[in-house]
Amino acid sequence: MKKTSTRLADGRELIYYDSRDDVVREAADRRPLERTVTTSEIRRDPLLGDAVAIASHRQGRTYHPPADECPLCPSEGDRLSEIPDSSYDVAVFENRFPSLAGDSGRCEVVCFTSDHDTSFADLSEEQAGLVLEAWTDRTAELSHLDSVEQVFCFENRGAEIGVTLGHPHGQIYGYPFTTPRTALMLRSLAQHKEQTGGRNLFADTVEREIADGSRVVIDGEHWVAFVPYAAHWPYEVHLYPKRQVPDLLGLDEAARTEFPKVYLELLKRFDRIFGEGEPPTPYIAAWHQAPFGTLDEFEGVGRDDFALHLELFTIRRTSGKLKFLAGSESGMSVFINDVPPETAAERLREVASK
After folding, report:
1. 143: number of Cβ within 10 Å
2. String of DSSP letters for 175-192
3. What is the pTM of this model?
4. Mean pLDDT, range 56-73, rounded to an integer
5. What is the structure's pLDDT at 64?
6. Treating both helix axes as pointing N-terminal to C-terminal, what angle do 253-270 and 125-143 enclose, rounded to 10 degrees?
7. End-to-end CA distance of the chain
8. Half-sphere exposure of 300 toward its Cβ, with a 13 Å CA cutoff?
9. What does the alpha-carbon distance between residue 175 and residue 181 come to, in Å, rounded to a whole number?
10. C-alpha distances in angstroms, 105 versus 42, 171, 339?
11. CA 112, chain centre distance (Å)
12. At what angle do helices 201-212 and 180-195 cross, to 10 degrees?
């Protein structure tokens, strides 16, 4: 992998990740952009103890542009985009309309491919492996920023999810705090460790799912994918490396090599869940990594106790119908799932590639 860092016209950082070492990236951003001004602010909710990012500048962000004006496609002639070069393998740049910025963290956009009319599932294993390397490198780089305590790599796919750009891409958030969801996991981890005399909750969960087998979707040599026992979403899969590590940086070469094959197969299965002729399945793919900040408030738990994993889920519950977060979910955070996890796992095994 070759990494080339440059700057866009308004000062934002852009990084190219290439599979070939002989690629030269010298194209300049020819757009007359003024330096980006953001108004991100983190406010604490005194009742719930969580945080809300106030980012009013995002109201003016790019919204469903026509394909020939896509800001994530390579620049061509007089059509100038966020990517100055005429082609790229993987590109990462600072978001022009970030939810988090400055002392409040950092937001980046990850372009998986220069091909507008494709998706992550269509990538080759080599391309998917390069995306994994980009995720890993950005996690390492952002972890060194004083304003970042936790790094979150994710992909929103589909208009139903709220995606405003059709080009295959994801995002990376560098939060200035440990996110509420991760804090819940860490508290459960600490409680389990105390109650079981030091056992690890993540390890016990993966071991239990493999032993049961009814919810396992893919059991590889270095990765295992399963529908969790208490899945929140109609179709939800958790993907774990079998050798527990706290973050993407901890993956060994064997796990990195197998990941593209396993992950691409999962994405292909998601597109087959509802049968032939159905539109692409909307989904969120979210990497959960250990925070880089202090974990002192979670007594007896360290970074190495956390387990890197990816959570993949769709908000579509059946053909033509979405799972809305209504009263119980939005008002009380109590999910009601219409699809039994065992049924979801069985369906995801049925639609395996031949």
Report:
1. 18
2. ESS--HHHHHHHHHHHHH
3. 0.96
4. 78
5. 67
6. 120
7. 31
8. 14
9. 13
10. 10, 13, 37
11. 12
12. 80
Distance CA 290, CA 288 (A): 7
Residue 60's pLDDT band (boundaries 50, 70, 90)? low
- Cβ–Cβ under 8 Å, residues 228 and 238: yes
User: pLDDT band for position 67 (50/70/90)?
Assistant: confident
CA distance 347 to 217: 9
Residue 63 pLDDT > 70, yes or no?
Answer: no
State which H helix or E strand residue 13 sits in. Answer: strand 13-18
Catalytic residue numbers? 169
| Whole-number Å distance between alpha carbons of 5 and 91 | 10
Choose between 130 and 67: higher pLDDT.
130
Q: Is 71 exposed, middle or buried (0-12, 13-18, 19+ CB in 10 A)?
A: middle
State the Cα–Cα distance between residues 214 and 319, nearest whole angstrom.
Answer: 24
Closest CA to 312 of 219, 191, 226: 226
d(CA 70, CA 62): 9
- C-alpha span between 238 and 310 (Å, rounded): 6
Tell the residue number behind the tokens 């082609």, with chain if given.
87
**H or E, element range at 125:** helix 125-143
